[in-house]
Amino acid sequence: MSILLITTSSPRRIAGKRRKQLSSKRSSAPASPRPNRIRNRIDISLHSFRVNLRTSAEDSGAEKLVIVPLPGLRYILEGGVSRSHNLQLRPFLSLFRRMPTIAILGTFDTKGAEHEFLAETIARQGFSTLLIDVSTLDNPTLGPDIASAEVAARAGNPAWKELLTRHDRGASIALMATGAANVLGKLVADGKIHGAISLGGGGGTAIGSAAMRVLPIGFPKVMVSTLASGQTAPYIGTSDLVMIPAIVDVAGLNRISRMIFENAAGALCGMVNAAEARRGQPPAGKPLIVASMFGNTTVCVNEAKRLVEAAGYEVLVFHATGTGGRSMEALIATGLVAGVLDLTTTEWADEYVGGILTAGPTRLEAAGLAVEEKVGFYRLRYRLYERLRL
Question: Distance of CA 165 to CAs 137, 162, 191, 206, 250, Å?
């Protein structure tokens, strides 16, 4: 977490004699009615600001520590810090809040400097970062919070060590992609991260996108990739993963890559802020109904949508173009859907006769699985039918 540390004592590295001298000067100095100001230099590091205050004579010499999120920095610098009432902490209470954490996923063996720059950019905007290494070749050049060995072990393959020692690029990427997806999924489920981002070429994009596209819809996720301007369907799937073209190769920092990485970091931070604001809002009360539509079923679906909405449901319409059908199936599988109005099954025709708008061989299966897993689905469907009939 990016924080501001304020201590009313001198730095600990000051020798005992010097500490006594300072204490003696403070005790003999006349009391000042004005609040104390920050007079010392500000030491800035990657994740924190450390500020040492020189206090007035009323300082007892005891060390006190105040931790304030970075949004409060301007308030403190402009208004100063008073010693009375325990540094008058009440004005700062509104500033104390949990700062969102953003997971930074990448191959730190070949792209450590780039991900470090990304982490610094995100930290400057007041967010905490969690570094996850998915390297498959050499030792990382950037120290991670979660090492690649831990990620590989989470893939569920007991022979993961042997697999990595073979240096089979394809098998290693598949292993790390599975492990990274499991790691990110657990972090999201535990509420430990609030956004995810990755930089990559071919291998990094394969791992990062596979890990992030399994995350819930609405969860902020960004992939900066050299493959973003081509056929992105294999990387995005039915998720809302945002892919940003890297323009230049992710191979060092330059005036172009810095600009792209900063923009990507800013975009993700904005998404996280929006998601956090949305989290505090009351959930929508209307049950969700999903419907499929194509040109030849538009009139029917629009009328059905009107009737269903009048009955008190919220209707989401998906265009049956292959991607639309897969997206609808994915949403049904999340358990957020109360009913399915699947009036357009042309994607099955494309699947059987070799059309270009197929949704795959699992089309129409998600609703059946939802029925098996949630008995209440039957009751919801029956109530919907009864209300429409009336």
Answer: 9, 5, 34, 20, 25
CATH topology agreement for domains 101-279 and 288-389: yes
- Token digits for 187? 């972090």
Domain boundaries, the chain: 3-95, 101-279, 288-389
Of how many residues is the chain composed? 390
> Which run of H or of E encompasses 7?
strand 3-7
Structure tokens at 191: 């509420």
Helices 365-373/323-333 angle, 10° precision: 0
Helices 169-189 and 202-212 cross at an angle (nearest 10°) of: 30
Residue 238: closest CA among 106, 327, 171, 299: 327
- How far apart CA 242 and CA 267 sit, in angstroms, is 10
Residue 119: which of 146, 142, 152, 150 has the closest Cα? 142
How far apart, in whole angstroms, are the C-alpha atoms of residue 297 and residue 133?
A: 48
Question: For residue 127, which of 105, 106, 161, 104 has the smallest C-alpha distance?
Answer: 104
Q: What are the CA-CA distances from residue 33 to residues 30, 56, 83, 90, 224 (Å)?
A: 10, 9, 10, 19, 54
CATH number of the domain located at residue range(s) 101-279 in this protein: 3.40.50.12020
Instruction: Name which CATH class applies to 288-389.
Output: alpha beta
Backbone φ and ψ for 83, nearest 5 degrees, come out as -80, -20
Q: What is the pTM of this model?
A: 0.67
Mean pLDDT of 72-99: 41
For residue 48, pLDDT over 60 is answered with: no
Q: What is the pLDDT of residues 56-65, one digit of tens each?
A: 333 444 433 4
- Measured CA to CA, the distance from residue 189 to residue 193 in angstroms comes to 9
The predicted pLDDT at position 11 comes to 38
Task: Quote the longest CA-to-CA distance of the chain.
Answer: 93
Helix (H) or strand (E) holding 319: strand 314-319
- Which is higher by pLDDT, 380 or 367? 367
